[in-house]
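pipeline/complex-builder :: batch 7 item 3
reading input block
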Amino acid sequence: MEDEFEVVAVNYWKDVKRELKTLLPHHWKTMLLIHNSIEFTDIKNFLSKIPCNSGGVYISLTKTSDSIKPYINDTNLFVVDCVSATVFEKEDTEGCSFEPPPSNLKALAELIDKYSKRLKPDLIILDSLSQFIDFSQTSMTEGREFYDFLESLRQHRPRLPCRFILLYDHVLSKKLRTLPSFRVDMILRLEVIKEQIAWKD
Amino acid sequence: MAKVMIVDDNRDIVETLKSIMEMEGHETETAYDGEEFLERVESVNPDLVLLDVMMPGLTTKEILGRLKERELNHFKIIFVTVVRFSEDERKRLMTEFNIQDFVTKPFNLSDLVKKVKIALLQK
């Protein structure tokens, strides 16, 4: 029975809690952040550790801007909401633009290009890459498209000093079989553990 | 037993929801985009629709608008979606478009089943 199984991936993870303060300000341009949290507050806490002087652009593919507004009022994040206009009539505001959801990674790259040229941010956060790729089962075509997308982000670098955080929802804990081995400077895994605390008398 | 129509562009999700609903004793019909759903909904005449948000083709806004135009409001709708709405947006969808409830993907089985039961009991 064991002969039927082959090793398809080996992932190494390191605990970087103590190193975060030195790791996050430097050493990367494109980060893949794998997380298991459905709460925006967990992501916001992480983002607050990253220096961002000119402001950031948060591209949301799964959360309406209204749902995250209470959490970002005290940040310098501009929201590109690719969700709300598919359900409600919406008009752009000072801190938020409404766009149709990009249908593929090429359209997403064009959207990123549009807002990086317009706003010249320090940081672009994409929430979430899981809309386009599943690292538990990636086909050859999907893999190629994903690497083309990563390459397009790399081509931004000479023109704009912008960093990219690609969020990937890993809520169901499926196996991460096809993590990118290049074109991403850092892969971090954020694990939030929530339990009910029982207090003894 | 009720008739449940499942509308999602992801075939795996459709199959999963179909199996769950049939295990609960319901009859099921499926559609893979908004156009197909709108073409068939009157002939299917479901009691409940499990509807994905953000499918390719027609937007949710267009789908809900056309249901309203055609006065198709006798069936219940539950959104089964990755999309996170604010509380105000949920209330608006519930009052304007007869959305009964929201199930967030990846969904919890018992949460889905409970919400379907409650929706079907509503008059």
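note: The interface with chain A takes residues 53-54, 56, 59-61, 64, 82-86, 88-89, 92-93, 104, 106 of chain B (CB under 8 Å).
queue -> next item
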